[in-house]
Amino acid sequence: MRDSCFSDEDLQMRDVAREFAQKEIEPAGRQLDKSYDADLFRDLWKKAAKLGLLGVMVPEHYGGVGGSPVALTLIIEELAAADAGFAVSMSMNWFAQCMLITVGSSAQMEAFLPMISSSDALPAAACATEPQGGSDVESVRRCGPGCISTTYRKKDGGFVINGTKNFITNGGLAGLYLVLATADINAGGAAASTFIVPGDSPGIAVGGIEDKMGIRSSQTAQMIFDDVFVPGENLLGEEWLGLEYVELAMIFSRGAVGGIAVGIARAAFEEALAYARERVQGGRPIIEHQGIGFMLADMAIMVEAGRSMVHRSALASLDFDIEADERFRLSCMAKVFCSDMAMKVTTDAVQILGGYGYTRDYPVEKYMRDVKVTQIFEGPNQVQRVDILERL
Ligand SMILES: Cc1cc2nc3c(=O)[nH]c(=O)nc-3n(C[C@H](O)[C@H](O)[C@H](O)COP(=O)(O)OP(=O)(O)OC[C@H]3O[C@@H](n4cnc5c(N)ncnc54)[C@H](O)[C@@H]3O)c2cc1C
User: Fold this and answer.
1) What SS3 string covers 297-334?
2) Strands 176-182 and 124-127, sheet pairing
3) pTM to 2 decimal places
4) Beta strands in the chain (DSSP E)
5) φ, ψ for residue 25 (rounded to 5)?
6) What values do phi and psi take at 53, rounded to 5?
7) 276 and 289 in contact (C-beta within 8 Å)?
8) Which residues pair with 192 in a beta bridge?
9) Which residue has the least CA distance to atom 37 on ligand 1?
Protein backbone atom coordinates (compact mmCIF):
# COMPACT_ATOMS: atom_id res chain seq x y z
CA MET A 1 0.00 0.00 0.00
CA ARG A 2 1.32 3.47 -0.95
CA ASP A 3 1.31 5.95 1.90
CA SER A 4 1.70 9.65 1.13
CA CYS A 5 3.94 10.27 4.14
CA PHE A 6 6.75 8.30 2.46
CA SER A 7 8.97 9.75 -0.24
CA ASP A 8 10.11 7.72 -3.25
CA GLU A 9 13.60 7.62 -1.66
CA ASP A 10 12.18 6.20 1.61
CA LEU A 11 10.39 3.46 -0.32
CA GLN A 12 13.44 2.65 -2.46
CA MET A 13 15.56 2.20 0.67
CA ARG A 14 12.88 -0.02 2.19
CA ASP A 15 12.89 -2.19 -0.94
CA VAL A 16 16.68 -2.52 -0.88
CA ALA A 17 16.49 -3.50 2.81
CA ARG A 18 13.67 -5.98 2.17
CA GLU A 19 15.54 -7.81 -0.59
CA PHE A 20 18.77 -7.95 1.44
CA ALA A 21 16.88 -9.04 4.56
CA GLN A 22 15.08 -11.89 2.84
CA LYS A 23 18.07 -13.15 0.83
CA GLU A 24 20.92 -12.71 3.30
CA ILE A 25 19.86 -11.76 6.81
CA GLU A 26 17.12 -14.33 7.35
CA PRO A 27 19.25 -17.45 6.59
CA ALA A 28 22.32 -16.05 8.37
CA GLY A 29 20.16 -15.06 11.36
CA ARG A 30 18.87 -18.63 11.70
CA GLN A 31 22.42 -19.93 11.65
CA LEU A 32 23.67 -17.33 14.15
CA ASP A 33 20.74 -18.14 16.44
CA LYS A 34 21.97 -21.74 16.66
CA SER A 35 25.65 -20.92 16.93
CA TYR A 36 27.20 -17.46 17.00
CA ASP A 37 29.98 -16.83 14.48
CA ALA A 38 31.62 -13.39 14.56
CA ASP A 39 33.01 -13.81 11.01
CA LEU A 40 29.56 -14.51 9.59
CA PHE A 41 28.19 -11.46 11.44
CA ARG A 42 31.02 -9.25 10.14
CA ASP A 43 30.44 -10.49 6.60
CA LEU A 44 26.74 -9.57 6.88
CA TRP A 45 27.65 -6.16 8.34
CA LYS A 46 29.96 -5.44 5.38
CA LYS A 47 27.24 -6.36 2.91
CA ALA A 48 24.77 -4.06 4.71
CA ALA A 49 27.37 -1.29 4.61
CA LYS A 50 27.83 -1.66 0.85
CA LEU A 51 24.08 -1.23 0.38
CA GLY A 52 24.16 2.02 2.37
CA LEU A 53 22.09 0.61 5.25
CA LEU A 54 24.54 1.53 8.02
CA GLY A 55 24.39 5.29 7.55
CA VAL A 56 20.72 5.82 6.73
CA MET A 57 20.45 9.19 8.47
CA VAL A 58 24.09 10.21 8.11
CA PRO A 59 24.62 13.12 5.66
CA GLU A 60 26.22 12.04 2.37
CA HIS A 61 29.44 14.01 2.86
CA TYR A 62 30.10 11.99 6.06
CA GLY A 63 29.75 8.65 4.27
CA GLY A 64 26.01 8.08 4.74
CA VAL A 65 22.97 8.28 2.46
CA GLY A 66 21.19 11.27 4.05
CA GLY A 67 17.85 9.51 4.57
CA SER A 68 15.00 10.44 6.93
CA PRO A 69 13.93 8.95 10.29
CA VAL A 70 10.92 7.56 8.44
CA ALA A 71 13.21 5.65 6.05
CA LEU A 72 14.95 4.29 9.12
CA THR A 73 11.70 2.88 10.54
CA LEU A 74 10.77 1.30 7.20
CA ILE A 75 14.20 -0.34 7.02
CA ILE A 76 14.25 -1.53 10.62
CA GLU A 77 10.90 -3.31 10.19
CA GLU A 78 12.29 -5.22 7.19
CA LEU A 79 15.51 -6.19 8.99
CA ALA A 80 13.69 -7.27 12.15
CA ALA A 81 11.16 -9.34 10.20
CA ALA A 82 14.17 -11.31 8.89
CA ASP A 83 16.31 -11.41 12.05
CA ALA A 84 15.77 -9.22 15.10
CA GLY A 85 19.32 -9.63 16.39
CA PHE A 86 20.82 -8.06 13.30
CA ALA A 87 18.24 -5.25 13.50
CA VAL A 88 19.21 -4.62 17.15
CA SER A 89 22.92 -4.39 16.30
CA MET A 90 22.06 -2.01 13.49
CA SER A 91 19.81 0.13 15.70
CA MET A 92 22.58 0.64 18.28
CA ASN A 93 24.83 1.78 15.43
CA TRP A 94 22.16 4.30 14.46
CA PHE A 95 21.80 5.36 18.11
CA ALA A 96 25.50 6.31 18.19
CA GLN A 97 25.16 8.11 14.86
CA CYS A 98 22.13 10.05 16.14
CA MET A 99 24.13 11.26 19.12
CA LEU A 100 26.99 12.37 16.89
CA ILE A 101 24.66 14.09 14.40
CA THR A 102 22.57 15.88 17.03
CA VAL A 103 25.35 16.88 19.43
CA GLY A 104 28.74 16.40 17.72
CA SER A 105 30.87 19.19 16.28
CA SER A 106 31.60 19.16 12.55
CA ALA A 107 35.16 18.02 13.34
CA GLN A 108 33.77 15.06 15.37
CA MET A 109 31.31 14.16 12.61
CA GLU A 110 34.10 14.33 10.04
CA ALA A 111 36.39 12.15 12.16
CA PHE A 112 33.94 9.55 13.45
CA LEU A 113 30.80 9.24 11.30
CA PRO A 114 32.58 7.59 8.32
CA MET A 115 34.06 5.02 10.76
CA ILE A 116 30.54 3.76 11.53
CA SER A 117 28.67 4.43 8.28
CA SER A 118 30.88 3.86 5.26
CA SER A 119 31.43 0.65 3.32
CA ASP A 120 34.31 -0.62 5.49
CA ALA A 121 32.71 0.46 8.78
CA LEU A 122 32.72 -1.44 12.07
CA PRO A 123 29.64 -1.30 14.33
CA ALA A 124 29.30 1.34 17.04
CA ALA A 125 28.19 0.76 20.63
CA ALA A 126 26.55 2.96 23.26
CA CYS A 127 27.53 2.29 26.88
CA ALA A 128 25.12 3.51 29.56
CA THR A 129 24.07 0.47 31.62
CA GLU A 130 26.17 -0.50 34.64
CA PRO A 131 26.16 -3.55 36.91
CA GLN A 132 24.02 -1.76 39.52
CA GLY A 133 21.71 -0.14 36.93
CA GLY A 134 21.88 3.07 35.03
CA SER A 135 20.31 2.11 31.74
CA ASP A 136 17.30 4.30 32.18
CA VAL A 137 18.16 7.94 31.79
CA GLU A 138 15.34 9.28 33.91
CA SER A 139 15.95 6.86 36.75
CA VAL A 140 19.67 7.74 36.73
CA ARG A 141 18.68 11.37 37.08
CA ARG A 142 16.26 10.53 39.91
CA CYS A 143 18.63 8.15 41.67
CA GLY A 144 21.49 10.63 42.22
CA PRO A 145 24.69 9.80 44.14
CA GLY A 146 26.42 6.52 43.27
CA CYS A 147 24.03 5.82 40.41
CA ILE A 148 26.80 5.93 37.83
CA SER A 149 30.05 4.37 38.95
CA THR A 150 31.99 4.84 35.70
CA THR A 151 34.09 7.95 36.27
CA TYR A 152 36.28 10.31 34.31
CA ARG A 153 38.98 12.74 35.35
CA LYS A 154 40.94 15.32 33.42
CA LYS A 155 44.55 14.58 32.49
CA ASP A 156 47.04 15.97 29.94
CA GLY A 157 44.44 17.91 27.97
CA GLY A 158 42.16 14.88 27.79
CA PHE A 159 40.09 12.56 29.97
CA VAL A 160 40.75 9.22 31.69
CA ILE A 161 37.76 6.85 31.97
CA ASN A 162 37.38 4.02 34.50
CA GLY A 163 34.43 1.68 35.00
CA THR A 164 32.40 -1.30 33.85
CA LYS A 165 29.43 -1.24 31.49
CA ASN A 166 26.99 -4.16 31.24
CA PHE A 167 24.88 -5.53 28.38
CA ILE A 168 26.60 -3.58 25.63
CA THR A 169 25.23 -4.37 22.18
CA ASN A 170 28.10 -4.78 19.69
CA GLY A 171 30.49 -4.90 22.67
CA GLY A 172 33.81 -6.42 21.62
CA LEU A 173 33.05 -5.91 17.92
CA ALA A 174 32.69 -2.15 17.87
CA GLY A 175 35.04 0.34 16.22
CA LEU A 176 33.65 3.13 18.40
CA TYR A 177 32.12 3.30 21.89
CA LEU A 178 30.06 6.20 23.25
CA VAL A 179 30.59 6.05 27.00
CA LEU A 180 28.57 7.79 29.72
CA ALA A 181 30.73 8.60 32.77
CA THR A 182 30.48 10.94 35.73
CA ALA A 183 33.00 13.50 36.95
CA ASP A 184 31.68 13.17 40.51
CA ILE A 185 30.34 9.91 41.85
CA ASN A 186 28.35 11.81 44.50
CA ALA A 187 26.62 13.94 41.89
CA GLY A 188 25.87 10.82 39.74
CA GLY A 189 23.86 11.58 36.60
CA ALA A 190 23.97 15.34 37.16
CA ALA A 191 27.73 15.31 36.46
CA ALA A 192 27.60 12.81 33.59
CA SER A 193 29.32 13.46 30.27
CA THR A 194 29.57 11.39 27.09
CA PHE A 195 32.87 10.46 25.46
CA ILE A 196 33.73 9.12 22.02
CA VAL A 197 36.11 6.22 22.60
CA PRO A 198 37.77 4.46 19.62
CA GLY A 199 37.53 0.68 19.95
CA ASP A 200 41.30 0.20 19.76
CA SER A 201 42.05 2.51 22.72
CA PRO A 202 44.41 0.88 25.26
CA GLY A 203 42.60 -0.21 28.45
CA ILE A 204 39.35 -1.46 26.84
CA ALA A 205 38.57 -5.12 27.54
CA VAL A 206 35.64 -7.49 27.16
CA GLY A 207 34.52 -8.72 30.60
CA GLY A 208 32.30 -11.47 29.18
CA ILE A 209 29.79 -12.27 26.45
CA GLU A 210 26.13 -12.82 27.44
CA ASP A 211 24.47 -16.15 26.60
CA LYS A 212 21.00 -14.85 25.77
CA MET A 213 17.47 -16.19 25.31
CA GLY A 214 17.00 -14.40 21.98
CA ILE A 215 18.53 -11.95 19.50
CA ARG A 216 21.47 -14.33 19.52
CA SER A 217 22.95 -12.92 16.32
CA SER A 218 23.61 -9.66 18.19
CA GLN A 219 26.66 -9.83 20.45
CA THR A 220 26.05 -8.41 23.95
CA ALA A 221 29.09 -7.96 26.19
CA GLN A 222 30.28 -6.54 29.46
CA MET A 223 32.90 -3.87 28.68
CA ILE A 224 35.65 -2.80 31.04
CA PHE A 225 37.30 0.61 30.77
CA ASP A 226 40.53 0.65 32.74
CA ASP A 227 42.34 4.01 32.66
CA VAL A 228 41.22 4.60 29.08
CA PHE A 229 42.55 7.92 27.81
CA VAL A 230 40.72 10.03 25.21
CA PRO A 231 41.88 13.42 23.96
CA GLY A 232 39.89 16.53 24.90
CA GLU A 233 38.25 16.73 21.47
CA ASN A 234 36.51 13.37 22.15
CA LEU A 235 34.12 14.93 24.68
CA LEU A 236 30.70 14.92 23.01
CA GLY A 237 29.02 18.31 23.35
CA GLU A 238 29.45 19.94 26.74
CA GLU A 239 30.51 18.43 30.06
CA TRP A 240 27.73 17.41 32.47
CA LEU A 241 25.07 17.28 29.75
CA GLY A 242 25.62 13.57 28.96
CA LEU A 243 22.16 12.46 30.12
CA GLU A 244 20.40 15.17 28.10
CA TYR A 245 22.18 13.95 24.98
CA VAL A 246 21.23 10.31 25.58
CA GLU A 247 17.63 11.42 25.98
CA LEU A 248 17.75 13.36 22.71
CA ALA A 249 18.99 10.27 20.85
CA MET A 250 16.23 8.22 22.50
CA ILE A 251 13.65 10.31 20.62
CA PHE A 252 14.80 8.26 17.61
CA SER A 253 15.98 5.06 19.22
CA ARG A 254 12.96 4.16 21.34
CA GLY A 255 10.76 4.53 18.26
CA ALA A 256 13.24 2.30 16.43
CA VAL A 257 12.80 -0.39 19.11
CA GLY A 258 9.07 -0.11 18.40
CA GLY A 259 9.92 -0.68 14.72
CA ILE A 260 11.92 -3.79 15.59
CA ALA A 261 8.96 -5.15 17.55
CA VAL A 262 6.60 -4.44 14.62
CA GLY A 263 8.93 -6.31 12.25
CA ILE A 264 9.04 -9.39 14.48
CA ALA A 265 5.26 -9.29 15.04
CA ARG A 266 4.62 -8.99 11.30
CA ALA A 267 6.80 -12.02 10.57
CA ALA A 268 5.03 -14.04 13.29
CA PHE A 269 1.61 -13.01 12.02
CA GLU A 270 2.46 -13.93 8.40
CA GLU A 271 3.76 -17.34 9.47
CA ALA A 272 0.66 -18.03 11.58
CA LEU A 273 -1.70 -16.90 8.81
CA ALA A 274 -0.07 -19.18 6.22
CA TYR A 275 -0.11 -22.11 8.65
CA ALA A 276 -3.76 -21.55 9.63
CA ARG A 277 -4.82 -21.65 5.97
CA GLU A 278 -3.09 -25.00 5.42
CA ARG A 279 -3.57 -26.89 8.68
CA VAL A 280 -6.80 -28.88 8.69
CA GLN A 281 -8.50 -29.92 11.94
CA GLY A 282 -12.14 -30.94 12.43
CA GLY A 283 -12.54 -31.22 8.65
CA ARG A 284 -11.57 -27.62 7.78
CA PRO A 285 -8.58 -25.29 7.78
CA ILE A 286 -8.05 -24.02 11.33
CA ILE A 287 -8.48 -20.41 10.13
CA GLU A 288 -12.16 -21.29 9.67
CA HIS A 289 -12.49 -22.05 13.38
CA GLN A 290 -13.59 -18.74 14.79
CA GLY A 291 -11.28 -18.95 17.81
CA ILE A 292 -8.27 -19.00 15.47
CA GLY A 293 -9.72 -16.64 12.84
CA PHE A 294 -10.41 -13.93 15.42
CA MET A 295 -6.93 -14.33 16.87
CA LEU A 296 -5.47 -13.69 13.42
CA ALA A 297 -7.73 -10.69 12.85
CA ASP A 298 -6.63 -9.23 16.20
CA MET A 299 -2.97 -9.86 15.33
CA ALA A 300 -3.37 -8.00 12.03
CA ILE A 301 -5.06 -5.06 13.80
CA MET A 302 -2.32 -4.85 16.44
CA VAL A 303 0.54 -4.94 13.93
CA GLU A 304 -1.07 -2.18 11.88
CA ALA A 305 -1.72 -0.05 14.98
CA GLY A 306 1.87 -0.49 16.17
CA ARG A 307 3.29 0.43 12.78
CA SER A 308 1.21 3.63 12.76
CA MET A 309 2.62 4.61 16.16
CA VAL A 310 6.18 4.00 15.01
CA HIS A 311 5.67 6.11 11.88
CA ARG A 312 3.98 8.88 13.91
CA SER A 313 6.92 8.93 16.32
CA ALA A 314 9.44 9.00 13.44
CA LEU A 315 7.61 11.84 11.67
CA ALA A 316 7.46 13.85 14.91
CA SER A 317 11.09 13.16 15.84
CA LEU A 318 12.47 15.91 13.60
CA ASP A 319 9.49 18.27 13.83
CA PHE A 320 10.93 21.01 16.01
CA ASP A 321 7.52 22.73 16.26
CA ILE A 322 6.71 19.88 18.67
CA GLU A 323 8.22 20.20 22.17
CA ALA A 324 11.14 17.81 22.85
CA ASP A 325 9.21 16.34 25.80
CA GLU A 326 6.29 15.44 23.55
CA ARG A 327 8.57 13.90 20.90
CA PHE A 328 10.22 11.85 23.65
CA ARG A 329 6.82 10.77 25.00
CA LEU A 330 5.69 9.64 21.53
CA SER A 331 8.82 7.52 21.11
CA CYS A 332 8.33 5.92 24.57
CA MET A 333 4.69 5.22 23.71
CA ALA A 334 5.64 3.58 20.41
CA LYS A 335 8.26 1.44 22.19
CA VAL A 336 5.93 0.31 25.00
CA PHE A 337 2.89 -0.35 22.83
CA CYS A 338 4.77 -2.19 20.08
CA SER A 339 6.88 -4.35 22.37
CA ASP A 340 3.86 -5.42 24.46
CA MET A 341 1.85 -5.92 21.27
CA ALA A 342 4.59 -8.01 19.65
CA MET A 343 5.01 -10.17 22.76
CA LYS A 344 1.28 -11.00 22.52
CA VAL A 345 1.32 -11.53 18.74
CA THR A 346 4.36 -13.85 18.80
CA THR A 347 2.88 -15.85 21.72
CA ASP A 348 -0.38 -16.21 19.79
CA ALA A 349 1.56 -17.29 16.69
CA VAL A 350 3.13 -20.15 18.69
CA GLN A 351 -0.37 -21.05 19.94
CA ILE A 352 -1.79 -21.14 16.40
CA LEU A 353 0.94 -23.52 15.26
CA GLY A 354 0.18 -25.77 18.23
CA GLY A 355 2.87 -28.36 19.06
CA TYR A 356 4.79 -27.50 15.88
CA GLY A 357 5.02 -23.88 17.01
CA TYR A 358 6.92 -25.04 20.07
CA THR A 359 9.61 -26.73 17.97
CA ARG A 360 12.57 -25.30 16.11
CA ASP A 361 11.15 -26.63 12.84
CA TYR A 362 9.16 -23.40 12.56
CA PRO A 363 10.43 -19.86 13.18
CA VAL A 364 7.69 -18.70 15.57
CA GLU A 365 9.48 -19.87 18.73
CA LYS A 366 12.47 -17.74 17.66
CA TYR A 367 10.22 -14.71 17.16
CA MET A 368 8.82 -15.19 20.68
CA ARG A 369 12.33 -15.47 22.19
CA ASP A 370 13.66 -12.55 20.15
CA VAL A 371 10.86 -10.15 20.94
CA LYS A 372 11.06 -10.41 24.75
CA VAL A 373 14.05 -8.09 24.95
CA THR A 374 12.10 -5.23 23.33
CA GLN A 375 10.10 -5.00 26.58
CA ILE A 376 13.35 -4.80 28.56
CA PHE A 377 16.11 -2.80 26.88
CA GLU A 378 16.28 0.94 26.16
CA GLY A 379 14.62 1.20 29.58
CA PRO A 380 12.16 -1.53 30.64
CA ASN A 381 8.48 -0.88 29.93
CA GLN A 382 7.64 -0.23 33.59
CA VAL A 383 10.13 2.62 33.65
CA GLN A 384 8.90 3.90 30.28
CA ARG A 385 5.43 4.19 31.76
CA VAL A 386 6.91 6.35 34.52
CA ASP A 387 8.57 8.51 31.84
CA ILE A 388 5.27 8.81 29.94
CA LEU A 389 3.29 9.60 33.08
CA GLU A 390 5.67 12.41 33.98
CA ARG A 391 5.08 13.98 30.57
CA LEU A 392 1.29 13.82 30.54
C1 LIG B 1 20.18 -7.85 24.91
C2 LIG B 1 20.41 -6.56 25.61
C3 LIG B 1 21.08 -5.54 24.96
C4 LIG B 1 21.34 -4.34 25.63
N5 LIG B 1 22.07 -3.36 25.00
C6 LIG B 1 22.45 -2.26 25.70
C7 LIG B 1 23.35 -1.30 25.13
O8 LIG B 1 23.77 -1.43 23.98
N9 LIG B 1 23.74 -0.26 25.89
C10 LIG B 1 23.31 -0.09 27.18
O11 LIG B 1 23.69 0.89 27.80
N12 LIG B 1 22.44 -0.97 27.75
C13 LIG B 1 22.01 -2.06 27.04
N14 LIG B 1 21.17 -2.99 27.63
C15 LIG B 1 20.74 -2.79 29.01
C16 LIG B 1 19.25 -2.56 29.12
O17 LIG B 1 18.90 -1.30 28.65
C18 LIG B 1 18.91 -2.80 30.61
O19 LIG B 1 19.07 -4.17 30.88
C20 LIG B 1 17.50 -2.39 30.91
O21 LIG B 1 17.37 -1.00 30.82
C22 LIG B 1 17.07 -2.83 32.30
O23 LIG B 1 18.02 -2.48 33.24
P24 LIG B 1 18.45 -3.55 34.34
O25 LIG B 1 18.79 -4.79 33.59
O26 LIG B 1 19.47 -2.92 35.20
O27 LIG B 1 17.13 -3.83 35.14
P28 LIG B 1 16.61 -3.07 36.45
O29 LIG B 1 16.66 -1.60 36.20
O30 LIG B 1 17.27 -3.65 37.63
O31 LIG B 1 15.09 -3.51 36.45
C32 LIG B 1 14.63 -4.78 36.96
C33 LIG B 1 13.10 -4.75 36.98
O34 LIG B 1 12.63 -3.72 37.85
C35 LIG B 1 11.77 -2.84 37.15
N36 LIG B 1 11.98 -1.46 37.58
C37 LIG B 1 13.17 -0.80 37.69
N38 LIG B 1 12.97 0.47 38.08
C39 LIG B 1 11.64 0.62 38.22
C40 LIG B 1 10.79 1.72 38.58
N41 LIG B 1 11.28 2.92 38.88
N42 LIG B 1 9.46 1.51 38.61
C43 LIG B 1 8.93 0.31 38.30
N44 LIG B 1 9.68 -0.76 37.95
C45 LIG B 1 11.00 -0.60 37.89
C46 LIG B 1 12.13 -3.00 35.68
O47 LIG B 1 11.04 -2.67 34.84
C48 LIG B 1 12.50 -4.46 35.59
O49 LIG B 1 11.33 -5.22 35.41
C50 LIG B 1 20.88 -4.16 26.95
C51 LIG B 1 20.17 -5.20 27.59
C52 LIG B 1 19.96 -6.39 26.95
C53 LIG B 1 19.23 -7.49 27.68
Assistant:
1) HHHHHHHHHHHHHHHHHHHHHCCCCCCHHHHHHHHHHH
2) parallel
3) 0.96
4) 124-127, 151-155, 158-169, 176-182, 192-198, 204-209, 220-231, 235-236, 280-281, 284-285
5) -70, -40
6) -80, -20
7) no
8) 182
9) 383
Q: How many CB atoms lie within 10 A of CB 320?
A: 9
Render pLDDT for 45-97 as a digit per residue (tens, 0 to 9): 999 999 999 999 899 889 888 888 899 999 999 999 999 999 999 999 999 99
88 Cα nearest atom in ligand 1: 3
Q: What is the pLDDT of residue 6?
A: 86
Q: What is the pLDDT of residues 196-227, one digit of tens each?
A: 999 999 999 999 999 999 999 999 999 999 99
How confident is the model over 271-291, as a mean pLDDT?
Answer: 98
Chain-centroid distance, C-alpha 388: 19
Ligand 1 atom closest to Cα of residue 129: 11
C-beta 205 within 6 A of ligand 1 = no
Query: Do 92 and 58 form a contact (C-beta atoms < 8 A)?
Result: no
Domains and CATH numbers, the chain: 8-117 (1.10.540.10), 124-241 (2.40.110.10), 243-390 (1.20.140.10)
